[in-house]
Protein backbone atom coordinates (compact mmCIF):
# COMPACT_ATOMS: atom_id res chain seq x y z
CA UNK A 1 0.00 0.00 0.00
CA UNK A 2 2.86 2.40 0.83
CA UNK A 3 4.37 1.86 -2.62
CA UNK A 4 1.00 2.34 -4.33
CA UNK A 5 0.42 5.66 -2.58
CA UNK A 6 3.92 6.78 -3.48
CA UNK A 7 3.53 5.79 -7.14
CA UNK A 8 0.28 7.74 -7.35
CA UNK A 9 1.60 10.87 -5.66
CA UNK A 10 5.16 11.06 -6.96
CA UNK A 11 4.26 11.99 -10.59
CA UNK A 12 2.19 14.90 -9.27
CA UNK A 13 5.08 16.09 -7.11
CA UNK A 14 7.52 15.84 -9.99
CA UNK A 15 5.21 17.82 -12.30
CA UNK A 16 4.93 20.53 -9.66
CA UNK A 17 8.72 20.59 -9.24
CA UNK A 18 9.36 21.43 -12.90
CA UNK A 19 7.00 24.40 -12.95
CA UNK A 20 8.61 27.83 -13.36
CA UNK A 21 8.31 29.87 -10.16
CA UNK A 22 5.66 32.21 -11.52
CA UNK A 23 3.39 29.26 -12.30
CA UNK A 24 4.38 27.52 -9.08
CA UNK A 25 3.04 30.44 -7.05
CA UNK A 26 -0.16 30.52 -9.09
CA UNK A 27 -0.67 26.88 -8.07
CA UNK A 28 0.19 27.87 -4.50
CA UNK A 29 -2.53 30.53 -4.51
CA UNK A 30 -5.06 27.94 -5.67
CA UNK A 31 -3.99 25.43 -3.02
CA UNK A 32 -4.18 28.19 -0.40
CA UNK A 33 -7.89 28.63 -1.17
CA UNK A 34 -8.39 24.88 -0.74
CA UNK A 35 -6.31 24.55 2.43
CA UNK A 36 -7.47 27.71 4.20
CA UNK A 37 -10.97 28.52 2.98
CA UNK A 38 -12.37 25.09 2.10
CA UNK A 39 -10.60 22.49 4.26
CA UNK A 40 -9.63 24.89 7.04
CA UNK A 41 -6.51 22.86 7.83
CA UNK A 42 -5.69 23.28 11.54
CA UNK A 43 -7.34 26.68 11.53
CA UNK A 44 -8.53 26.26 15.11
CA UNK A 45 -4.98 25.45 16.27
CA UNK A 46 -3.53 28.44 14.43
CA UNK A 47 -6.09 30.83 15.91
CA UNK A 48 -5.51 29.51 19.42
CA UNK A 49 -1.75 29.84 18.99
CA UNK A 50 -1.99 33.38 17.67
CA UNK A 51 -4.34 34.40 20.48
CA UNK A 52 -1.97 32.95 23.09
CA UNK A 53 1.24 34.28 21.57
CA UNK A 54 0.02 37.68 20.37
CA UNK A 55 -2.66 38.80 22.86
CA UNK A 56 -1.67 42.46 22.38
CA UNK A 57 -3.01 42.41 18.83
CA UNK A 58 -6.65 42.82 17.85
CA UNK A 59 -8.68 39.99 16.31
CA UNK A 60 -8.48 41.79 12.98
CA UNK A 61 -4.69 42.07 13.14
CA UNK A 62 -4.33 38.40 14.06
CA UNK A 63 -6.61 37.42 11.18
CA UNK A 64 -4.32 39.22 8.74
CA UNK A 65 -1.33 37.32 10.16
CA UNK A 66 -3.30 34.07 10.02
CA UNK A 67 -4.04 34.41 6.31
CA UNK A 68 -0.48 35.46 5.49
CA UNK A 69 0.87 32.50 7.46
CA UNK A 70 -1.21 30.07 5.40
CA UNK A 71 0.04 31.64 2.18
CA UNK A 72 3.58 31.21 3.50
CA UNK A 73 2.86 27.63 4.62
CA UNK A 74 1.67 26.57 1.17
CA UNK A 75 4.50 28.45 -0.55
CA UNK A 76 7.01 26.64 1.66
CA UNK A 77 5.50 23.24 0.91
CA UNK A 78 5.68 23.82 -2.85
CA UNK A 79 9.18 25.26 -2.57
CA UNK A 80 10.26 22.05 -0.86
CA UNK A 81 8.80 20.08 -3.77
CA UNK A 82 10.51 22.44 -6.22
CA UNK A 83 13.80 21.42 -4.61
CA UNK A 84 13.52 18.08 -6.43
CA UNK A 85 14.59 19.71 -9.70
CA UNK A 86 15.87 23.19 -8.83
CA UNK A 87 19.39 24.04 -9.99
CA UNK A 88 22.18 25.14 -7.65
CA UNK A 89 22.34 28.46 -9.49
CA UNK A 90 18.64 29.13 -8.99
CA UNK A 91 18.49 28.26 -5.30
CA UNK A 92 21.65 30.23 -4.53
CA UNK A 93 19.97 33.23 -6.13
CA UNK A 94 16.91 32.74 -3.94
CA UNK A 95 18.53 31.90 -0.61
CA UNK A 96 21.54 33.89 0.54
CA UNK A 97 23.66 34.02 3.69
CA UNK A 98 24.50 37.52 4.86
CA UNK A 99 27.63 36.58 6.82
CA UNK A 100 28.99 33.20 5.75
CA UNK A 101 32.44 34.49 6.68
CA UNK A 102 31.38 34.40 10.35
CA UNK A 103 30.49 30.74 10.03
CA UNK A 104 33.88 30.04 8.43
CA UNK A 105 35.56 31.73 11.39
CA UNK A 106 33.87 29.18 13.63
CA UNK A 107 35.00 26.30 11.45
CA UNK A 108 38.56 27.58 11.85
CA UNK A 109 38.26 27.12 15.63
CA UNK A 110 38.46 23.37 15.06
CA UNK A 111 35.34 22.29 16.96
CA UNK A 112 32.04 20.88 15.73
CA UNK A 113 29.19 23.37 15.45
CA UNK A 114 25.58 23.22 16.62
CA UNK A 115 23.16 25.30 14.57
CA UNK A 116 19.98 26.28 16.41
CA UNK A 117 17.04 27.41 14.29
CA UNK A 118 13.26 27.67 14.43
CA UNK A 119 10.46 26.60 12.12
CA UNK A 120 10.52 30.04 10.61
CA UNK A 121 10.99 31.48 7.12
CA UNK A 122 12.54 28.83 4.83
CA UNK A 123 14.09 26.37 7.26
CA UNK A 124 14.08 23.69 4.53
CA UNK A 125 16.30 25.67 2.16
CA UNK A 126 18.65 26.45 5.02
CA UNK A 127 20.32 23.15 4.13
CA UNK A 128 22.00 24.76 1.12
CA UNK A 129 24.64 26.00 3.55
CA UNK A 130 26.22 22.56 3.14
CA UNK A 131 27.35 23.69 -0.32
CA UNK A 132 29.43 26.44 1.31
CA UNK A 133 31.09 24.68 4.24
CA UNK A 134 34.02 22.36 4.89
CA UNK A 135 32.54 20.41 7.81
CA UNK A 136 30.20 17.50 7.21
CA UNK A 137 26.60 18.67 7.56
CA UNK A 138 23.95 16.77 9.50
CA UNK A 139 20.25 17.49 9.77
CA UNK A 140 18.12 16.00 12.54
CA UNK A 141 14.66 14.89 11.46
CA UNK A 142 11.87 12.44 12.29
CA UNK A 143 11.62 9.46 9.95
CA UNK A 144 8.46 9.38 7.81
CA UNK A 145 6.36 6.23 8.22
CA UNK A 146 6.05 5.66 4.49
CA UNK A 147 9.54 4.45 3.62
CA UNK A 148 9.26 5.60 0.00
CA UNK A 149 8.39 9.18 0.95
CA UNK A 150 11.07 9.01 3.62
CA UNK A 151 13.62 8.15 0.93
CA UNK A 152 12.31 11.00 -1.23
CA UNK A 153 12.78 13.48 1.61
CA UNK A 154 16.28 12.13 2.21
CA UNK A 155 17.08 12.48 -1.49
CA UNK A 156 15.73 16.05 -1.61
CA UNK A 157 17.69 17.17 1.43
CA UNK A 158 20.67 15.08 0.37
CA UNK A 159 20.82 17.18 -2.78
CA UNK A 160 22.38 19.82 -0.55
CA UNK A 161 24.99 17.33 0.71
CA UNK A 162 23.21 17.00 4.06
CA UNK A 163 23.23 13.71 5.95
CA UNK A 164 19.94 13.16 7.78
CA UNK A 165 19.85 11.62 11.24
CA UNK A 166 16.68 10.31 12.81
CA UNK A 167 15.97 11.92 16.18
CA UNK A 168 16.38 8.55 17.90
CA UNK A 169 19.88 8.08 16.44
CA UNK A 170 21.20 11.60 17.00
CA UNK A 171 23.11 10.98 20.22
CA UNK A 172 24.74 7.79 18.94
CA UNK A 173 25.84 9.36 15.64
CA UNK A 174 27.24 12.45 17.35
CA UNK A 175 29.16 10.42 19.92
CA UNK A 176 30.60 8.18 17.19
CA UNK A 177 31.64 11.21 15.13
CA UNK A 178 33.19 12.84 18.20
CA UNK A 179 35.23 9.72 18.99
CA UNK A 180 36.40 9.45 15.38
CA UNK A 181 37.36 13.12 15.25
CA UNK A 182 34.78 13.91 12.56
CA UNK A 183 34.07 17.64 12.63
CA UNK A 184 30.45 18.28 11.81
CA UNK A 185 27.78 20.94 11.81
CA UNK A 186 24.47 19.77 13.25
CA UNK A 187 21.18 21.53 12.58
CA UNK A 188 18.56 21.55 15.35
CA UNK A 189 15.06 22.94 14.81
CA UNK A 190 14.56 22.99 18.57
CA UNK A 191 11.32 24.94 19.01
CA UNK A 192 8.93 21.98 19.06
CA UNK A 193 6.90 20.92 22.08
CA UNK A 194 7.95 17.75 23.95
CA UNK A 195 5.68 15.62 26.11
CA UNK A 196 5.22 17.47 29.38
CA UNK A 197 5.98 14.31 31.36
CA UNK A 198 9.38 13.97 29.67
CA UNK A 199 10.42 17.62 29.85
CA UNK A 200 13.47 18.53 31.92
CA UNK A 201 12.90 22.26 31.66
CA UNK A 202 10.13 24.82 31.25
CA UNK A 203 10.67 28.32 29.92
CA UNK A 204 8.75 31.40 28.86
CA UNK A 205 7.97 31.35 25.14
CA UNK A 206 5.95 34.30 23.87
CA UNK A 207 5.17 35.08 27.51
CA UNK A 208 3.78 31.61 28.25
CA UNK A 209 5.53 28.99 30.35
CA UNK A 210 5.88 25.77 28.35
CA UNK A 211 7.97 22.59 28.41
CA UNK A 212 10.82 22.72 25.88
CA UNK A 213 13.30 20.36 24.28
CA UNK A 214 16.75 20.59 25.85
CA UNK A 215 18.46 17.84 23.87
CA UNK A 216 20.25 20.26 21.54
CA UNK A 217 21.77 22.11 24.48
CA UNK A 218 22.77 18.92 26.30
CA UNK A 219 24.47 17.51 23.19
CA UNK A 220 26.26 20.80 22.52
CA UNK A 221 27.59 20.69 26.09
CA UNK A 222 28.53 17.02 25.94
CA UNK A 223 30.44 17.43 22.67
CA UNK A 224 31.78 20.89 23.59
CA UNK A 225 30.53 22.44 20.35
CA UNK A 226 30.38 26.05 19.28
CA UNK A 227 26.77 27.17 19.04
CA UNK A 228 25.25 29.49 16.44
CA UNK A 229 21.69 30.68 15.94
CA UNK A 230 20.40 31.17 12.41
CA UNK A 231 18.02 34.05 11.93
CA UNK A 232 15.95 33.52 8.80
CA UNK A 233 14.22 36.29 6.88
CA UNK A 234 11.79 36.29 3.98
CA UNK A 235 12.51 39.12 1.57
CA UNK A 236 9.78 38.30 -0.91
CA UNK A 237 8.05 35.33 -2.44
CA UNK A 238 10.70 32.67 -2.93
CA UNK A 239 13.46 35.01 -1.75
CA UNK A 240 15.18 34.44 1.60
CA UNK A 241 18.27 35.26 3.56
CA UNK A 242 19.84 33.91 6.73
CA UNK A 243 22.21 35.44 9.25
CA UNK A 244 24.44 33.56 11.69
CA UNK A 245 24.31 34.87 15.25
CA UNK A 246 26.89 33.64 17.81
CA UNK A 247 25.37 32.13 20.95
CA UNK A 248 28.20 30.54 22.96
CA UNK A 249 31.70 29.20 22.26
CA UNK A 250 32.04 27.18 25.45
CA UNK A 251 28.63 25.67 26.25
CA UNK A 252 30.03 23.60 29.13
CA UNK A 253 30.63 26.83 31.04
CA UNK A 254 27.02 27.98 30.66
CA UNK A 255 24.56 27.01 33.43
CA UNK A 256 22.13 24.27 32.44
CA UNK A 257 19.17 25.43 30.34
CA UNK A 258 20.50 28.97 29.94
CA UNK A 259 21.36 28.21 26.32
CA UNK A 260 17.85 26.88 25.70
CA UNK A 261 16.31 29.98 27.29
CA UNK A 262 18.54 32.16 25.12
CA UNK A 263 17.41 30.29 22.01
CA UNK A 264 13.72 30.78 22.74
CA UNK A 265 14.21 34.48 23.40
CA UNK A 266 15.87 34.80 19.99
CA UNK A 267 13.04 32.88 18.32
CA UNK A 268 10.51 35.07 20.11
CA UNK A 269 12.17 38.23 18.83
CA UNK A 270 12.16 36.80 15.32
CA UNK A 271 8.46 36.00 15.54
CA UNK A 272 7.53 39.44 16.87
CA UNK A 273 9.25 41.09 13.90
CA UNK A 274 7.33 39.11 11.27
CA UNK A 275 4.88 36.64 12.87
CA UNK A 276 3.38 35.52 9.55
CA UNK A 277 6.49 33.51 8.67
CA UNK A 278 6.34 31.22 11.69
CA UNK A 279 4.85 27.71 11.53
CA UNK A 280 1.68 28.24 13.57
CA UNK A 281 -0.02 24.95 12.69
CA UNK A 282 1.75 22.95 15.41
CA UNK A 283 0.54 22.83 19.03
CA UNK A 284 3.57 24.47 20.61
CA UNK A 285 1.60 25.78 23.61
CA UNK A 286 -0.54 22.70 24.24
CA UNK A 287 1.06 22.13 27.66
CA UNK A 288 1.10 25.80 28.65
CA UNK A 289 0.89 26.32 32.42
CA UNK A 290 -1.05 29.54 31.94
CA UNK A 291 -3.73 27.96 29.77
UniProtKB/TrEMBL annotation:
InterPro entries, A to Z: LipA_acyltrans
> What's in the keyword line of the UniProt record?
Acyltransferase, Cell inner membrane, Cell membrane, Membrane, Transferase
What biological-process GO terms show up in the record? glycolipid biosynthetic process
Gene Ontology annotations for the cellular component aspect, listed alphabetically: plasma membrane
Which GO terms of the molecular function aspect are on file? acyltransferase activity
Cellular location(s): Cell inner membrane
Q: Does the keyword Transcription regulation apply?
A: no
* First-listed, main subcellular location of the protein, grouped into a coarse class: membrane
Entry superkingdom: Bacteria
- PANTHER family assigned to the protein according to its UniProt record, in alphabetical order: LIPID A BIOSYNTHESIS LAUROYL ACYLTRANSFERASE, PHOSPHATIDYLINOSITOL MANNOSIDE ACYLTRANSFERASE
Provide the protein name. KDO2-lipid IV(A) lauroyltransferase
**Organism of provenance:** Flavobacterium saliperosum
Amino acid sequence: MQLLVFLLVYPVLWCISILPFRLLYFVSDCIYVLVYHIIGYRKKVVRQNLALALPHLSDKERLVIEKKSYHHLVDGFLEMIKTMTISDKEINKRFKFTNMELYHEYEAKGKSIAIFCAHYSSYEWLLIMNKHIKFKGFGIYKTIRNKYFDKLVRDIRGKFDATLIDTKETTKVMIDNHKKGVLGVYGFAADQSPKASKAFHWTKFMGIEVPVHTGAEMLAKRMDMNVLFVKGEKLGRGMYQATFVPMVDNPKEVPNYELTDMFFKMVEQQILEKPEYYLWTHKRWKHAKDS
